[in-house]
């Protein structure tokens, strides 16, 4: 692993406490059916890891700490000892081995994870904001199942990576109002990953209707200046000009297409909310439930 790659992982992990401390200390809430598949996959992986640990004992920790049967997509097992220190992880947090798990999940989630009620054989749940270096700066909510086995706590978490339509509409309203009153400041803020315009899997992008080029992108500023009209989806569908037509002819509307989810890294169906603001098209898209 080269130094640049290692530094990226470490910086992403060390950024966690800020996000975690900013969140309210609320218990996990009931989830909609859109996460049923992810939820079940995480539970299944935890059950598999617990069974393996009971069979192999501490020798299982080395297996949990490398790519293999206990890393499935962006799901992986991590293990905490009785003092709250991370001792194994199949994900990038392995570079934090030996450090307190509160660095990764925040103090409130740590307290629930280490609570005396988490007895051997019982499965607990925590939820917290998490910044993974591979997400390109996105802080995503994570829901984690955990179970104590002897002196260790095994855990598997999944990203709650699909915002609701109401959240997307609220973000579009906010961005459109800002573009109408302070366009240059807003474009600069979007390109700087300002948290007002980058929330979980939601982000804002803006296209100049005259040049048909990106002028701001909340997740990937490297797209700024590129030709939006020529944009195609991963399945080859031309989507750029179709969205420009909606903004220019209707002023606002919606459009369905396939696009990579920045949290799951999977191409997923997405619905774009489009609004024209002067000579700009402002867009916020949300991923549809599986």
Secondary-structure class: alpha+beta
Helix segment tally = 9
Stretches where pLDDT is under 50 for at least 5 consecutive residues are 1-31
N-to-C span: 35 Å
The major beta sheet can be summarized as: 6 strands, antiparallel
Integer tally of domains: 2
Instruction: Indicate the radius of gyration in whole angstroms.
Output: 21 Å
Give the SSE order as H and E letters.
HHHHEEEHHEEEHHEEEHEEE
CATH class of the largest domain: Alpha Beta
Structural overview:
- It is a single chain.
- The longest helix is centred in the first third of the chain and has 21 residues.
- By secondary structure, the protein is of the alpha+beta class.
- It contains nine helices and twelve strands.
- It is elongated.
- α7 crosses α8.
- The chain has two domains: 157 residues, PAS domain (Beta-Lactamase, 2-Layer Sandwich), CATH 3.30.450; 123 residues, Beta-Lactamase.
Fill in the keyword field for this structure.
single chain; 290 residues; alpha+beta; Beta-Lactamase; 2 domains; six-stranded antiparallel sheet; 9 helices; 12 strands; disordered N terminus
Please render the helix and strand layout as text.
Elements: H1 3-14, H2 16-22, H3 36-56, H4 60-64, E1 71-72, E2 75-81, E3 86-89, H5 102-105, H6 107-113, E4 123-131, E5 139-149, E6 152-159, H7 165-181, H8 183-191, E7 198-199, E8 202-208, E9 213-217, H9 240-250, E10 252-260, E11 267-277, E12 280-287
Antiparallel strand pairs: 1-2, 2-3, 2-6, 4-5, 5-6, 7-8, 8-9, 8-12, 10-11, 11-12
